[in-house]
Amino acid sequence: MEPPPAAPREQPPKDGIGPRGLPETYHTARVLDSTARYEKFVRKLRNLEEEQRRGAINTLKDLKDTQYNDFFIRCDRRSLINNVARRVDLCMASYQEDLKAKRQRLTALLTAEEEKNIRLFVEQAQAGAEAVWQEKKDRLAYLLAKRKKEHEDKYRDVPISKCVHVQPCLVKMRSKESQEGQLYQMKENLAKKMSEIEIEKMWHAVALKEADALAARMEVDAMERLRREQECAKYSKDLIARRKEQKRKEQELLKEESKKFKELFEEYKRKEEAERKAAIRERQETLEKQQAEAKLINDTWDSLSSMGIMDEKNKEDLRKKKARELNVCNKHIVQLKEEKARNMEADDPLFEAEARKIQDAMDQKRCQEMMRAKKINDEARAGVKEQIKENAATRANEAAAHREVVQYQRQLGAQLDQLERQKQEDLDQRKKCMMAADDYQNEITKIMCRKMYSGLKMQEKCPCSKPDYCAVPVRGPKLGDMPKTSQQPNPTENRSEDAGNKVVNPAKGSPNP
Predict the structure, then answer these.
(1) Which of 389, 453, 493, 494 is deepest in the core (most CB within 10 A)?
(2) For the chain, what are the domain ranges?
(3) Which of 7, 27, 8, 9 is nearest to 17 (CA)?
(4) Rounded to 5°, angle at Cα 148 from 146 and 152
(5) Which residues, at least 6 apart from 14, have a Cβ–Cβ distance to it below 8 Å?
(6) Quick one: which H or E segment has residue 280?
C-alpha cells in the first residue's frame, strides 16, 4: 500500500508574533538581508548607466569625425574632377585655336599662290610666248636644283640613333634614366603620402575648430538673415511705391509727347502737300519746255535733210575702206594664231611634264595637310569622347554619392530612432527602479515603525538625518511593567497601522496570553 500523501508544508508568516510567543517576530532578519542586495543592485545599475552614457558620447564623437572625413574627402574628389574638366577644356580651346591658325595660314598660302599664278598668267599674256618659254626653262632649272639640294640634305642629316655601334650605349642610358625615374617616382609617392597624412591632420584640426565656431556662425547667420529679410521687405515696399510714382509720371510724359508728335505730324503733312503741288507745277513747266525744244529740233532737221546726202556717201566709202583693211588684218592674225598653235604643240610635252610635277607636289602637300587635319580631328573627337565618358563617370559618381548620402541619412535616422527608443526605455526603467526603490523604502519604513513586542526601542535620531536600520536597539521596560498611560498607542503608530499593516494588539484580546 502506498503511504498517504504528506500534508503541504505551511509557508512561514511574513510578520506577526513568532512561534514561541511575544518576544519573537518574523520580519527583522529577512528584510535587513534584502537591504544590502538592493543597495548592490542600485550601485550596479548606476555603473551601467554611466557606462552607457560614456559609450553614447564616444559613439556620437566617432560619428561626427566620420561625417567630417566624408565631407572633406568628397570636397577633394570634386576639386580633382573640376581640375581635370578645366584642363580638358583648356586643351580643347588650344586645339581649336591651333586649327584655326593653320586654316588661316593655309588660306593665305592658297591665296598667295593663286595671286602669283594670275600675275604670271598676265605677264605671260603681255610678254608673249618667248618670255613664257624662258620662264618655264628657268622654273625647271630651279626645281631640279631644289630637288637635288633636298636629296642631299635628306641623306646628310641622318640621326646618330640609327648607327649600329651606338645602340648599346643608348640602351644603357635609357635603362639608367628609367631607373632614376622609378626612384624619383617612389620618393614622390612617399612624399605625397606624408603630405596627405599631414593634410588630413590639419583638416581634422580645422574641422574641430570649425565645429566649435559653427553654432555661433549659425546664430549670426540667422540674425543676419532676419535683418536682411526685413530690409528686403522694406526695400520692396519702397520700390513698389517708387515704381507706381514713376509709372504715373511716365504716363503723363507719354500723353504730352503724343500731343507734340500729333502736332508735328500735322505740320509735316501740310509741308508735304505744299511740296507735292510745287513738284507738279515744275513737272508741267518742264514738259512744256521739252515739247517746245522737240518742235524746234524737228523743224531744224527738216531744213537740214537736203544737205545730208553728200555726207552719207562719204561715210559709205569710208566704211568700205575700213572693211578691206579689216580683212587684211584678220588674215594676218590667222597666220599668227597658226604659228602660235604650232609652237604650243611643240612645247606641250615639256608643259605637261612640268605641270605633272607641280600637280604631284601640290597633291602630296594637300595629302599631308589632309592627314594632319584628319589627325587633329581624330584627336579632338577622342578628346570629346573622353570628356563625355568623364562626364558620364562624374554623373555616375555623383549619383552613387547621392545614394550613399541618402543611405547614410536613412541609417542615421534609424540609429537616432533606436537611440531615442533606448533612451525612452532607459528612462522608463529608471522610473520603474525609482518607484521600486520608493516602494521598498516605504515598506521598510512601515515595518520599522511597528510596535516592538519584545520591549525594544530604536534610538531617537535627528529628523533631518538619513534612516539607519542597523542601529543598536535600546531595551526598555516590558509590557507588563509599563504604566497605563504608556499602553496608549502613539499617533504615529496608529497612522502606520492604519496605512495597511494591521497587527493584533496582544494586550487587547490576544489569542496567546
Answers:
(1) 453
(2) 176-264
(3) 27
(4) 115
(5) 26, 27, 30
(6) helix 167-304
* C-beta separation of 129 from 343 below 8 A: yes
DSSP β-bridge partners for residue 17: 25
* Residue 416 scores a pLDDT above 50: yes
Helix (H, G, I), strand (E, B) or coil at 456: strand
User: Are residues 450 and 503 in contact, defined by beta-carbon separation less than 8 angstroms?
Assistant: yes
Helix/strand/coil for 457 = strand
Distance of CA 237 to the CA centre of its chain: 36
Contact 480, 506 (CB under 8 A): no
Q: Any idea how long the chain is?
A: 513
Considering all CA atoms of the chain, what is the largest pairwise distance in Å, rounded to the nearest integer?
Answer: 196
All cell numbers assigned to 12:
512561514
Reading phi first (left if > 0) and then psi (alpha if -120 to 50, else beta), residue 21 is in left
Contacts of 354 (CB under 8 A, 6+ apart): 136, 139, 140
pLDDT above 90 covers a percentage of the chain that reads 0
Q: What is the pLDDT of residues 373-399, one digit of tens each?
A: 888 888 888 888 888 888 889 889 998
Q: Which residue has the cell 586654316?
A: 103
C-alpha cell belonging to residue 338: 597658226
Hey, what's the cell of 412?
A: 542615421
Question: Which residues pair with residue 457 across a beta bridge?
Answer: 474
Is residue 33 within 8 A of residue 44, CB to CB? The reply is no
Q: Are 32 and 469 in contact (CB under 8 A)?
A: yes
Going by C-alpha positions, the residue among 82, 76, 79, 78 that lies closest to residue 200 is 76
The answer, as to whether pTM is greater than 0.85, is no
- Determine the pLDDT at residue 505: 42
Q: Write the Ramachandran bin of 392: left for phi over 0, alpha for psi from -120 to 50, otherwise beta.
A: alpha
Q: Which helix (H) or strand (E) holds 401?
A: helix 309-448
pLDDT (average), residues 287-299: 81
Q: How confident is the model at residue 282 (pLDDT cuts 50, 70, 90)?
A: confident
Judge contact between 437 and 42, C-beta under 8 A: yes
Task: Scan for cell 605637261, then name that residue.
Answer: 352
pLDDT digits (tens, 9 = 90+) for 272-281: 888 888 888 8
Q: Of 28, 91, 35, 71, give the one whose Cα is nearest residue 401.
A: 71
Q: Which residues contact 13 (CB under 8 A, 6 or more apart)?
A: 26
**C-alpha cell of residue 227:** 535683418
Question: Strand pairing partners for 475?
Answer: 456
CA 93 from chain center: how many Å? 22
Q: Residues near 88 by Cβ (< 8 Å), separated by ≥ 6? A: 383, 386, 387, 390
Average pLDDT over every residue of 27-53: 71
CA 250 remoteness from chain centre: 45
Residue 319 is placed in which grid cell?
Answer: 566704211
With a CB cutoff of 8 Å and minimum separation 6, the contacts of 187 are none
Q: Are 32 and 470 in contact (CB under 8 A)?
A: yes
